[in-house]
Every structure is written in structure tokens, then in C-alpha cells.
Write a structure and sequence with these properties.
By secondary structure, the chain is an all-beta fold. It has one domain: Immunoglobulin-like (Sandwich), CATH 2.60.40.1190. The chain is globular, with a radius of gyration of 16 Å. It starts with 6 loop residues before the first strand and ends in a 7-residue tail after the last strand.
Length: 188
């Protein structure tokens, strides 16, 4: 997949996303140590349960409500990081050694910068991740990325991703890490 163009997320067939028309994501890697991710949700935002803005902090369980997610792995490795970005500004980072074998990483070095804007028909969330806050390897490595969203409405949750490789929603599945970003060129 190509970077620097909007990519559509697909709703898992188990969901009925009546309030959501589309979710698209743009990923940029302007420098080796930074990853910028922009999410745009088009739909009836008044029907979507959006957490209230507060003082942003690390919080677990964000995926139980409306939140946007990114899964980042370096090419050729089973280890990966999961980022949760809530419209409230709350965030979570998890580090995994392999499929679902991991723990929270409440380290300020990994804290993403989150900005949110909302209107009646559009919810936008921008997140900036410092790759060097994850490890020394991430800044110069090719990356495999999974992009996803969990959207909560009065009807329940719907699950959105670049690719749904399983019958049940599973954002941790390695085949869902469908966006590949090459290592930065020297001098970039």
C-alpha cells in the first residue's frame, strides 16, 4: 500500500454501522523518528458515543468505546506495539512480544500527541507517534502497520480495519497489518 493518500477502513461484516458512512486514514512518515496518522470518520456524529474531552492521560480499556488504533511492527519481527487514541485525548500503548503476548507501556516517551476536531458529520483525530520512543530500531526500520477503529453507538460496537483476516474482529492478527512503509532513505 502507498503512504500519503487516504485509505478506507472497512467495517467487519459482524457490524451494522448505520451512523457511520466511512472512515478513512492518512499515514505520513515525514522523518525517520515520527509517524503521523489522521483519521476521518464521516457520518452522523451525534449518534456516535464520543468520550468527553478532559485532561489527556494514559488509560486502559479505551477499545471498549469509540477509539482509533494503530498496530506497528518492524518488518520481519513478531513483536509489535498497539496504540489506542480516544477522542477524549486519552491514550494507551501496549507492547507485545508476539500475538497477544504483551502488556501496557505507560511510558511518557511513547505518549502520542493527539488532536481532535468534530462537527455534525465529521470526526477527525490526528495522532503523532515518536518511533524513537518505542525503540532505537523503529526510527530506521521498515514498518508493517494495522489501522483500525472501534465505534460505539446506541446499537453497540462496530469494528473497522484496513483488512479483516478472521471471522471475528481481531486487530492483532498479523495479516491485518496491511500497510507497509519502507525505511526512510539516508539523509531524510
Amino acid at each position: 500500500m502507498v503512504v500519503d493518500q487516504w485509505i478506507d477502513l472497512k467495517c467487519h461484516p459482524s457490524g451494522r454501522p448505520e451512523a457511520v458512512r466511512a472512515i478513512e486514514v492518512l499515514v505520513r512518515r515525514p522523518a525517520g523518528a515520527e509517524l503521523q496518522i489522521s483519521y476521518r470518520l464521516h457520518g452522523d456524529v451525534s449518534r456516535i458515543r464520543v468520550p468527553l474531552r478532559g485532561v489527556p492521560c494514559f488509560a486502559t480499556g479505551l477499545w471498549r468505546h469509540t477509539c482509533f488504533e494503530a498496530f506497528i511492527a518492524t518488518a520481519g519481527r513478531a513483536a509489535y506495539h498497539e496504540f489506542n487514541f480516544a477522542p477524549s485525548g486519552d491514550w494507551a500503548v501496549y507492547v507485545f512480544r508476539s500475538y497477544r503476548d504483551g502488556a501496557p507501556l505507560a511510558d511518557e516517551m511513547a505518549r502520542p500527541c493527539i488532536a481532535v476536531c468534530s462537527t455534525g458529520s465529521l470526526l477527525e483525530l490526528d495522532a503523532v507517534i515518536r518511533l524513537d520512543g518505542l525503540s532505537a530500531v523503529h526510527s530506521g526500520a521498515s514498518l508493517r502497520i494495522g489501522l483500525s477503529a472501534v465505534i460505539e453507538t446506541g446499537d453497540g460496537l462496530s469494528y473497522w480495519a484496513l483488512r479483516h483476516p478472521a471471522d471475528k474482529p481481531d486487530f492483532h492478527h498479523a495479516d491485518g497489518f496491511a500497510l507497509e512503509i519502507e525505511a526512510p532513505s539516508p539523509g531524510r
